[in-house]
């Protein structure tokens, strides 16, 4: 049974706060293990990567076979049925078209004093994409990481994917092929992150590492941050559906189940102004779970972490949504636009009854790598800007430097940085 | 004596690589100490913050006096000479005017299929700004953090600044007053970062923490990343001057010294096509260092970490600049525009002979919080976007959902997520 809350009950605030604070991830402390792995890879390079891969992934690689050959990629991709290839191609093309609209423009101008000011955007040179192997191995995630990097203009994209017992989902390699990725290594875990960040003889280092992974991967990303850029520390997926009486309970139930089937801490919450919808959705979830092959896992997550909250108004729903700051927010309303402005913290917002979150996972065109665990309060989904950086441009003329010299030298003095002041005053009257 | 390199010498590549890898920061391992402090603040709140502050800062605060009163701020600010206040006001106004041009625009559109797609930007609700106390206590940094946050539309800005032995530079509080910051706590170190990230009875938690600090502050930021957003892990400052024969050796020398006077690992590098300029600059640095009150510290840094590199062409200089990926790059050339495009990795670029880096530290208008330690390969300087986040918008009509259903359901099948597929197919023919 999911949690049922009613915002008119006196204990609501306390119970809602508990829900917000619910621990959804087993926070394994793997800091020391990961530090040792990173140090080992920095010190011994390929030798360490090969040893660790063979041990953790029950594999049998050498430095010579760490990288997939072009033939291996092509033959794996060729195993993938043509309708799957076509679907991945459609996804790729739509993701690409949307992300092309995210490309930032340079902006350089001259102000009234004659000072040239501006921002110029350039791509990161080399990016490493981490793709999980095994259970949660998603070809769609290959596209969601690779396409914005390509659109940004990244020159080199290196992908790593662990192959437990030597196995890999061929659709992963098909997605890589469609995305134009040719540099793929059969490695994973902290050792893969370390290899990307510091480089080995076989794997040249990159400038930024993106992509989801388990606790070891997340910890390794946190530890190499600074040496390379990272995207975010991703947690379990989550959806918040805001619905009124116009919503179809079977559709809402299907969306809550789609999130819950991720397992491993995934969370589905319904907030509704309509108590009878709440009841109908709860019944529908139970019914639909019996129809689903992996229904047991989804039911476990729904029972443990799911919640249905009834509220007095849509404004109140928006207020709760901003406190939850969910990765995905569905507005299952006839008029979603009316509530859209009120939702300030969300990774992505899905409008109306015909936009199930899952369409955004694959072919909507927007990115499915989104901030989780309330980080939508401060973070954005993955996009083209994550693969670019902005350089400031500043240029003074002799006269604009003169005009700004006095306040600059004054502040330098207050900060006890006389050399700063001197570098300005030495240029005056020239 | 600074390092002298000549790109035509056979050992150049090896020596340049050594320069790139030179360790400039004593990487104290304070991980465990910081973890303990954060756990203590989470557990005991104000009590821990007060105890740690009194111990580490030799202070005598209580929970009631953690926050500066409006009177304390006003009277400290009133001690600041009027020319300093005017200079800070000029800096504020110019920083504000420039950052207003960084505000992103929402972009929502409907594609050919009828799918609504877009990006919407919103401000972070609450931000914590860390301002160092003691030696490197810079009022200009208050402005550089606070102004972009204000421009972004951040509703609440909380500032923390340690007051060792109870002392504070009044110009810090004057800058805060000019920037409109009224919530200021006299705390620092890892305990301040923990208080901002997790909140205490006196200090409500924020959503993001920005600003520079020592090893404890940097480590604390790394550890709370995820609970809150952070800006970057800042290292020692650095400048790279690219000059040809048109440069004035005395001016170039002054800029190299201005950087070196930061001490603590700051690095100044000159790359020039003109060997006689190289010699003249070296002589000038020696001469000017004798004129500077803090010349001894700057000389120490220049001798230990400074470098002068002669190259055969400006193209070659740009190539080295991209490998160094410096925080600041000065183009001391008659025609800086010609080289500008070739410099791809830099925090900020300063154009021509009349743009000393120091003008950008204070009143140029651009931000002086910039990526250090080669992180300009993947990171940008602080700006308005750091205080905002992007929400994706997706909306399907019945017909566009139908058009996209087949590829989406196909990919869901490959990913073994039948619930995802079902949430789409259940809506068809409705």
Quick description:
Chain A is an alpha/beta fold. Chain A is 44% helix and 16% strand. Chain A has helices spanning 12-21, 31-44, 46-56, 70-78, 82-100, 139-152, 170-178, 189-198, 215-224, 249-260, 275-289, 295-305, 314-324, 336-340, 357-362, 398-414, 418-425, and strands at 3-6, 107-110, 116-123, 126-130, 156-160, 183-185, 208-210, 229-230, 238-243, 267-272, 307-310, 328-332, 348-351, 388-395.
CATH architecture of the largest domain in chain A: 3-Layer(aba) Sandwich
Q: How many runs of DSSP E, i.e. beta strands of chain A?
A: 14
Q: Name the assembly state.
A: homodimer
Task: Using the alpha-carbon principal axes, give the shape of chain A.
Answer: globular
Biggest chain pair contact, residues each? A-B, 125 and 125 residues
Query: CATH-wise, what's the superfamily of the largest domain in chain A?
Result: Nitrogenase molybdenum iron protein domain
**Which structural class fits the helix and strand makeup of chain A?**
alpha/beta
Instruction: State the major sheet of chain A.
Output: 6 strands, parallel
Describe the structure.
Two copies of one chain form a homodimer. By secondary structure, the first copy, chain A, is an alpha/beta fold. Helix content of chain A is 44%, strand content 16%. Chain A contains 17 helices and 14 strands. The first copy, chain A, has a six-stranded parallel beta sheet with strand order 1-11-10-9-12-13, sandwiched between helices. In chain A, strand 5, helix 7 and strand 6 form a beta-alpha-beta unit. The N and C termini of chain A lie far apart (79 Å). The mean pLDDT of chain A is 95. Chains A and B meet through helix 5, strand 3, helix 10, strand 13 and helix 15 of A and helix 5, strand 3, helix 10, strand 13 and helix 15 of B. Chains A, B: Pathway: Amino-acid biosynthesis; L-histidine biosynthesis; L-histidine from 5-phospho-alpha-D-ribose 1-diphosphate: step 9/9. Chains A, B: Belongs to the histidinol dehydrogenase family. Chains A, B: It catalyses: L-histidinol + 2 NAD(+) + H2O = L-histidine + 2 NADH + 3 H(+).
